[in-house]
Amino acid sequence: MKIIRRLRYLRPAFTVVILSSMAGSTAFGAHPLITDDTGTQGKGKFQMEMNGEDARGKEILNGVERRKDTQKFAVILSAGSVNAVDIVVGVPWLWSRVKENGTTVSDGSGVGDASFEVKWRFFERGGFSLGVKPGLTLPTGNEKKGLGNGRPSYGLTLIATQEFERSFLHLNVRYARNEFALEADRESNRRDLWNGSVAAGVKIVKPLTLIANIGAETNGDKDSNTWLAFLLGGFIYSVTENLDVDLGIKAGLNSSEDDLAVLAGVAWRF
Known about the structure:
- This protein has one domain: monomeric porin ompg (Porin), CATH 2.40.160.40.
- Strand 2 (64-82) and strand 3 (85-100) form a beta hairpin.
- The chain is globular, with a radius of gyration of 18 Å.
- It has a twelve-stranded antiparallel barrel with strand order 1-2-3-5-6-7-8-9-10-11-12-13.
- By secondary structure, the protein is mainly beta.
- The protein has helices spanning 2-10, 183-188, and strands spanning 46-61, 64-82, 85-100, 103-111, 114-125, 128-138, 153-163, 167-177, 192-205, 208-217, 228-240, 243-252, 260-269.
- It contains two helices and 13 strands, in the order H-E-E-E-E-E-E-E-E-H-E-E-E-E-E.
């Protein structure tokens, strides 16, 4: 039971779904936003991203103080197959440490489950567009160390984007189905997860865009019915037309979400 309990708290730290929302040919919907946009690279064009996240959370259960520190680093490649379709591949590296009353009870790192997605913008009129993004995660992470599911999993995101002259608004609704190889994971984690989020941004000056993001997701822990909810703020700075850097701060809106996370990334289009 002790092993099952530890794996239960590792699982949310290694969720790869948050890494799948990092594509786009403009600043719209790009990292550090969690909410995706309908933008695509264009036929024969590519985008390479390197994104990181450092998150910390604390909770007290049955008199035990539990602290969780997690870090993620991901490399994501987006390739434009046709003007309205992108193929997106991502590989994460994950770290996690959990302490109970100051004593380390779990500490692991390694490659997580890789992701493969296809984004299709199927409707566009004026500044409004709709897209769909099916995705698959492959069991490249070691599930015995809490680094992956151990089996292929899948999801589908519906995307709406409204662009204005100097601002934008994105809306996402996502369903994910997680399949687990280990019995302990199947007993302690939900397989069906829902996510909803809204993002907005405004271009202050030509190279600088300020962004905000809010959302909630089904809690993967079967023992909790409280959704994970977050609020994020940050900026994207275009060093050149094809090179962006970004920074964001994400705060949990309830005890189920991490207390605080710092996100940073670089995107290069070619």
